[in-house]
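Input:
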Amino acid sequence: SQQGEEDPQALSIQEGENATMNCSYKTSINNLQWYRQNSGRGLVHLILIRSNEREKHSGRLRVTLDTSKKSSSLLITASRAADTASYFCATRGSNYKLTFGKGTLLTVNP
Amino acid sequence: NAGVTQTPKFQVLKTGQSMTLQCAQDMNHEYMSWYRQDPGMGLRLIHYSVGAGITDQGEVPNGYNVSRSTTEDFPLRLLSAAPSQTSVYFCASSYIEGTGGANVLTFGAGSRLTVL
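Output:
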């Protein structure tokens, strides 16, 4: 069964607005990662947060992690049309496997 | 630097046929894995490997076979294709940074398989 579940399944916003996606998971993790997938392409790694971290920033991306609630959020600030893509969270437990959620489809309208 | 290369990009099979999806990486990554992506299902792990000669099953291994004879290559074999195996397949690799490590994946471009 899949570990992570993203919410919402789809999100449509206007350029310049912020986009927030959430990820919930079931078991303890070593780290949580976010990936982006443009239509018809492979996934690209965006940002990683370890289980002992609460918040990380990378450019316009901000990730938070709440291990007590087993949840994470990805915030994209000042969205651009080029941010239109599917976003996936992936969790790594004590082994080496990365388990992905079903993704959030973000559409940024010009 | 090619990264992760998957071949073929597209393939159409008839039910019962066998085929191999090829995956090669030139980054000397220890970890390699295969995922399938279906609409509404996200990515599901089929098989993975932590080094040459070592493979293990993921969430959905039935109907697939893998081997890892070299660090660079990790082929995925469909033994007897079924329509349920129609999907987009992704190969991904990473360094292994230990039990507390990052394991950040580099993905190939994908192979779209249709089984009639």
